[in-house]
Design goal:
- Chains A, B: InterPro entries: Arg_biosynth_ArgJ, ArgJ-like_dom_sf, ArgJ_beta_C.
- Chains A, B: It catalyses: L-glutamate + acetyl-CoA = N-acetyl-L-glutamate + CoA + H(+); N(2)-acetyl-L-ornithine + L-glutamate = N-acetyl-L-glutamate + L-ornithine.
- Chains A, B: It is found in: Cytoplasm.
- The structure is a homodimer.
- Chain A is of the alpha+beta class.
- Helix content of chain A is 34%, strand content 27%.
- Chain A has 2 domains: 257 residues, L-amino peptidase D-ALA esterase/amidase, CATH 3.60.70.12; 119 residues, ArgJ beta chain, C-terminal domain (Ubiquitin-like (UB roll)).
- In chain A, the strands form 2 sheets. In chain A, strands 1, 2, 3, 4, 5, 6, 7 and 9 form an 8-stranded mixed beta sheet that branches. Chain A has a 7-stranded mixed beta sheet with strand order 8-15-10-14-11-12-13, with helices on both faces.
- In chain A, helix 5 packs across helix 6.
């Protein structure tokens, strides 16, 4: 898994996390000014880094993204904003650019101030460590992690104009995940040349069918951020003909990253795909799929490999989308359990056995139209409760 | 805890539940035709008993309500509707009234058909068992229970026109609780005379500040029903002067019942009151309070007595209500932890110790206006997950 041309990265430990051996400071750099686009949390309460980065995109002069884990610098008032701006200035001084050309993300507990002294020591180290190698990309992905158990990266290559172009990204989970027009921290990079308006359009489209379609716990974070950097290092500009192909590759990278978040969700033992098909609009399909993904009762049933399908149908039923039960059918892992508003005679043991594989697939079929949506979630386990009952204390 | 004048009740075991000693069939009767009003789930998927009862109110000729636990008769198609109608006809035959004058509620697992043979044997027994005594009221409340650990009743007395009038009710919980313009099963009775339009207005008002303000798991059930019966047995009619007093007493009964659901919620160890004050509208206050009540991250933090207040503020932040962080402050059990968008210097151990009492109180204060809302929830524990991971299998 490597970086696109002209990008370098590093991840170091600077002591923000209580375990001093854990990486907690990451830097992604471009060797030339890059086009940058971003999508951010729609929460009314947003972290200071979101405020700072949001004000700096779209841009054509971004040189890098600095990220720390262990402290989200959210709900920290003016001091938090000052800290985030200071952090970008400290990186800019090392890199030799304007503070405005560095974007910033922070993740971790809410309501604590950033430890400036530790960052003042760590930023020169991480800035001097950057390199283009795969190990450096991996270290940066590791330094973004909070309760994640594995680093999360994705890459796609395309052949454009006789050259190979690359899209690479890294992200982190693993709870407070229910992105709303945004997501948890992710940085996606490419080496093609794109103007900011196009970059923003491509990113928004990709995020709508990836990060916005996952939910661990329906709690939209204060810090959700996806940044997209395109530095043109291959010399390739995407023409209209390649646009669709590039969009698909970018969406693939975002979907792979977002699915990795679900697979590594706190306490999760099942990966759940929810398809809603035959809906009037894709928005209605999305609302029903999301409602199923957010139901604690559906998610606890999955944890127990329990084909308690009434919870799935009733979760779609309270999503706000109007339907008659006779217009709805449901299959679990390919076995139809509910047809046109009435239960089928299905083998509950067979469905339960299929769920025990850890891969669960619900297909809700409506007779309304031809639109559809796919969302992903995980199960709700006692381990999730244990992890979250004493996160701050 | 006794019934209003002219009402009788009974609860018997007829074998719907797997444990044959458990009460699972309840009947509330009025000795004369009563005014009846109801509020029902807004889920698009509704149980057959909801469809049948909803079509029979408002009414001035209702004689009784039959309820069973152990099977919700929801998602059961036309056969479910036939079964629910048959159930009311079987009771009507015993009581000597029209089937339309009997209302019906069912609670338990979704997607299973009612066991007609068991009900055919149980209905004559429960009909012959009805009496006005407190023990009979209690038995009926017990027969409504599913995973509830205690029966739930409430009563208020008022002096009107020189006579004592009574409002009594019973309800059940204990999960799939996030009523939306409705609630879990509840029957509220009074011995005053009320016309249907007034009864409906009084009930809707009471439910909006009681059952609609609780959430165990944000999963609006297919079976939520609150029925209100007024039989006029005292000969008292509420005049305009007493209306406000009666409304308050009815609201008190509904609030006490709904709070009992939260106190007995599956796996719950904490009772949480969420106040949002200083909002622009009561609807905005309600949306923010409900958003906090529905957050698994807030609820797991409460389970761990963890004053992780960022989760509370950010849950209000994604409720859809617009605000700036500087307009928001938060206190937990009387201790201010967040003031005007920035953290205070508070003693986390003191807040955690206060939470360990099991009574938790969040007050979110905004600078927008004078409207407010109060909602109630419980914590999310590993025990809730355990209970719901294998409910049907």
């Amino acid at each position: 898994m490597h970086l696109p041309l002209g990008f370098s990265a590093a991840g170091v430990a600077c002591g923000i996390k209580s375990d001093p051996s854990k990486l907690d400071l990451a830097l992604f750099l471009s060797d030339r000014p890059a086009t940058a686009a971003g999508v951010f949390t729609q929460n009314q309460v947003v972290g200071a880094p979101v405020k700072v980065s949001r004000s700096r995109v779209p841009s054509t002069t971004v040189r890098g993204v600095v990220l720390n884990s262990g402290c989200s610098n959210a709900c920290t008032g003016q001091r938090g904003i000052d800290d985030a701006q200071w952090m970008t200035a400290a990186v800019a001084e090392q890199v030799g650019c304007q503070p405005e050309d560095i974007l910033v993300c922070s993740t971790g507990i809410i309501g604590h101030f950033l430890p400036r002294q530790k960052l003042a020591e760590g930023i020169p180290v991480v800035s001097k460590s950057v390199a283009a190698g795969d190990d450096h990309f991996l270290a940066a992905a590791r330094a973004m992690m909070t309760t994640d158990t594995v680093p999360k990266q994705a890459m796609r290559k395309l052949s454009l104009g006789g050259k190979t172009v690359t899209i690479s990204g890294a992200c982190k989970g693993a709870a407070m995940i229910a992105p709303n027009m945004a997501t948890m921290l992710a940085v996606v990079m490419t080496d093609v040349r794109i103007i900011p308006e196009t970059a923003q359009k491509l990113l928004t489209q990709a995020v709508n069918t990836s990060f916005n379609c996952i939910s661990v716990d329906q709690h939209t974070s204060t810090s959700d951020t996806v940044l997209f950097l395109a530095n043109g290092a291959t010399g390739i500009t995407i023409g209209d003909t390649a646009m669709q192909e590039f969009q698909q590759a970018l969406t693939d990278v975002c979907q792979e990253l977002s699915q990795k978040i679900i697979r590594d969700a706190e306490g999760a033992e099942h990966f759940v795909t929810v398809d809603v098909i035959g809906a009037r609009t894709s928005e209605e399909a999305y609302r029903m799929a999301k409602s199923v993904c957010d139901s604690p009762l559906v998610k606890t049933a999955v944890a127990g490999n329990d084909p308690n399908w009434g919870r799935i149908v009733s979760a779609a039923g309270y999503s706000g989308v109007k339907f008659f039960e006779e217009e709805c059918s449901l299959a679990i892992n390919g076995i139809e359990v509910y047809r046109a508003g009435a239960p089928t005679q299905f083998d509950a043991d067979a469905v339960s056995a299929a769920m025990k594989t850890g891969e669960v697939h619900f297909v809700l079929t409506f007779t309304h139209g031809k639109e559809q949506s796919r969302c992903w979630t995980c199960d709700l386990t006692a381990e999730y409760v244990r992890l979250n009952a004493d996160y701050s204390t």
